């Protein structure tokens, strides 16, 4: 094919995808951008609105509730993603050992990953339940706890209990990726290191970790982007409570827009959240571009 | 290298702890679904129910007006319709796009733009989409969810299929071209059949993503006509006169298809995972 004709074919093949993405993503995004500079409400036909410039954003800068939500979301993201990475690598190292039934045990990693997020949230809510919960029963029966507690009803514990539920569902993914990475680390590197007298600890930091870091970093950034958007698990487990102690940024935008029905400021909050995510997304794209160049 | 006996014991002990930690929560969900409220409130807790009670599962398959079964079965229907339709659209538009990215050089910034929109928090889009659907009378309608899910599935399928097409040798396409096949024939008769495995994997991943989606479904649906399973489950869990056994039964049934697909996908899982199939 001639270059011009090639170019035409390439664009032609892209047309369905581009049309859909422009209609369902680009157009709404631009609309959100415009809304953020207005005082529009959500109810009624169309918008009744007035241009108010940067007023919404000025308000956000001053909003200590929103700052607290950002702090909580950052806490959730950092704690759950780092725990997932540490646990994921440890479990990958374990499942990389030789033992009977290894294939079957490795397949167990699929279960939490494939369990729908909402089912995971419901499951842990039932486990934590103050009256029925198996966690209370377990802890009292082995003598670690005197009386049943309301794990999700106490602002001091609610956030960390949700994080625990999130870790259980998401670390197996990191473990799967790390496990695949481990298969690509050349065996003779270890043999050479043992000859040189390197102990297991040194071998892990000098050979194993550098060997799986590439795949791991992509997975880590991806998890962080997802964790920052978190909504489902909190909606089911705590509804942002108690006393707002688990209200994350997505929850904040959701309430501003669909509970208080303020489209203008809701859009401004949404854009602020998007801008924060953009930083992590940029890191992800850089990693992808680098990987693409290598292959 | 031989392992010492102590090391072997440690490995098996750690593996046992790992297996328990994965299985116990799900096993507990099953126990709850067949326990009576009485069994569950007893202190100390009865871990195995005295008399297994499967009545919740029976209730979930009844179609009486206003029953839990009706809510569950209509949500199941809606989830299937939405997931299958959105996946079909995503494949129809994503396959040619992926082919274009894979076979014609250039346009990479466009590909990254598509990935960026996939990563973008949905809060950036919810308000305008809500307004549009409301104006078109599409709120509380599976059509609106099918449309919205394209924003998630289409970039994902495009990205996954692009690497799938990369593994198809260009030479066999050139041979067909010399024999006079046109581009459409090459794509449908040669490239796609050769890349069948990755096409299948992309389709299953897309189904899983759609099955799991909650945020849009919560915002844009309001009753049995359009609510999907995740929303129905959240409803069950939020109800005041809650039957915990029933919630557990619904959760287990809703988890069954994705878990089965997950085990089936095990082999192609990793390519999908690194392409970003990790919503949640």
TrEMBL record, chain A:
Bilayer topology annotation: Multi-pass membrane protein
Residue span(s) of domain ABC transmembrane type-1: 70-290
Sequence intervals crossing the membrane: 12-37, 74-95, 107-127, 167-186, 207-225, 267-289
Primary site of residence: membrane
Subcellular localization: Cell membrane
Pfam families xref list: BPD_transp_1 (PF00528)
Keyword line: Cell membrane, Membrane, Transmembrane, Transmembrane helix, Transport
Domain of life: Bacteria
Family: Belongs to the binding-protein-dependent transport system permease family.
Protein name: Sugar ABC transporter permease
Taxonomic source organism: Mesorhizobium retamae
């Amino acid at each position: 094919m001639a270059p011009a004709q090639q170019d035409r074919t390439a664009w032609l093949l892209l047309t369905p995808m581009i049309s859909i993405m422009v209609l369902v993503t680009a157009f709404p995004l631009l609309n959100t951008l415009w809304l953020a500079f207005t005082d529009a409400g959500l109810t009624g036909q169309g918008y009744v609105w007035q241009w108010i410039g940067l007023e919404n954003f000025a308000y956000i800068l001053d909003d200590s509730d929103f700052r607290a939500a950002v702090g909580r979301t950052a806490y959730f993201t950092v704690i759950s993603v780092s725990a997932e990475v540490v646990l994921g690598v440890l479990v990958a190292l374990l499942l990389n050992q030789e033992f009977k039934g290894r294939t079957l045990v490795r397949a167990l990693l699929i279960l939490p990953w494939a369990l729908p997020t909402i089912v995971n949230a419901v499951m842990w809510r039932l486990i934590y339940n103050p009256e029925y919960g198996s966690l209370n029963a377990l802890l009292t029966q082995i003598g670690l706890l005197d009386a049943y507690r309301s794990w999700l009803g106490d602002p001091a514990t609610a956030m960390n209990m949700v994080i625990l539920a999130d870790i259980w569902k998401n670390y197996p993914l990191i473990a799967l990726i790390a496990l695949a990475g481990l298969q690509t680390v050349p065996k003779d590197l270890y043999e050479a290191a043992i000859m040189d007298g390197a102990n297991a600890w040194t071998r892990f930091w000098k050979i194993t970790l550098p060997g799986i870091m590439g795949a791991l970093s992509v997975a880590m950034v991806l998890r962080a982007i997802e964790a920052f958007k978190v909504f489902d698990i909190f909606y089911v487990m705590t509804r942002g409570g108690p006393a707002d102690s688990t209200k994350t940024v997505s929850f904040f935008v959701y309430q501003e827009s669909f509970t208080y029905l303020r489209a203008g400021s809701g859009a401004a909050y949404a854009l602020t959240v998007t801008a924060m995510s953009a930083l992590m997304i940029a890191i992800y794209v850089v990693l992808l571009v680098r990987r693409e160049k290598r292959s | 290298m031989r392992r010492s006996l102590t090391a072997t014991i440690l490995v098996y002990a750690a593996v046992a702890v790992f297996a328990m930690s994965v299985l116990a929560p799900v096993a507990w969900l099953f126990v709850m679904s067949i326990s009576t409220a009485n069994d569950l409130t007893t202190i100390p807790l009865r871990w195995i129910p005295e008399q297994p009670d499967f009545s919740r599962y029976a209730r979930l398959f009844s179609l009486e007006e206003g029953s839990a079964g009706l809510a569950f079965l209509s949500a199941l229907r809606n989830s299937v319709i939405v997931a299958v339709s959105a996946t079909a659209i995503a494949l129809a538009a994503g396959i040619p796009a992926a082919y274009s990215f894979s076979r014609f050089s250039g346009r990479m910034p466009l590909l990254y733009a598509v990935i960026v929109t996939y990563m973008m928090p949905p809060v950036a889009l919810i308000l305008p989409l809500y307004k549009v659907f409301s104006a078109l009378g599409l709120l509380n309608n599976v059509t609106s969810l099918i449309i919205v899910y394209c924003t998630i599935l289409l970039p994902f399928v495009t990205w996954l299929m692009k690497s799938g097409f990369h593994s198809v040798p260009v030479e066999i396409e050139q041979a067909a071209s010399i024999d006079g096949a046109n581009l459409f024939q090459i794509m449908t008769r040669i490239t796609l059949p050769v890349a069948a495995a990755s096409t299948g994997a992309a389709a299953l991943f897309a189904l899983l993503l759609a099955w799991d989606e909650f945020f849009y479904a919560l915002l844009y649906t309001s009753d049995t006509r359009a609510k999907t399973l995740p929303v129905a489950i959240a409803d069950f869990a939020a109800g005041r006169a809650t039957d915990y056994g029933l919630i557990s039964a619904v959760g287990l049934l809703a988890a069954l298809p994705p878990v089965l697909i997950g085990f089936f996908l095990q082999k192609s899982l990793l390519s999908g995972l690194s392409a970003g199939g990790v919503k949640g």
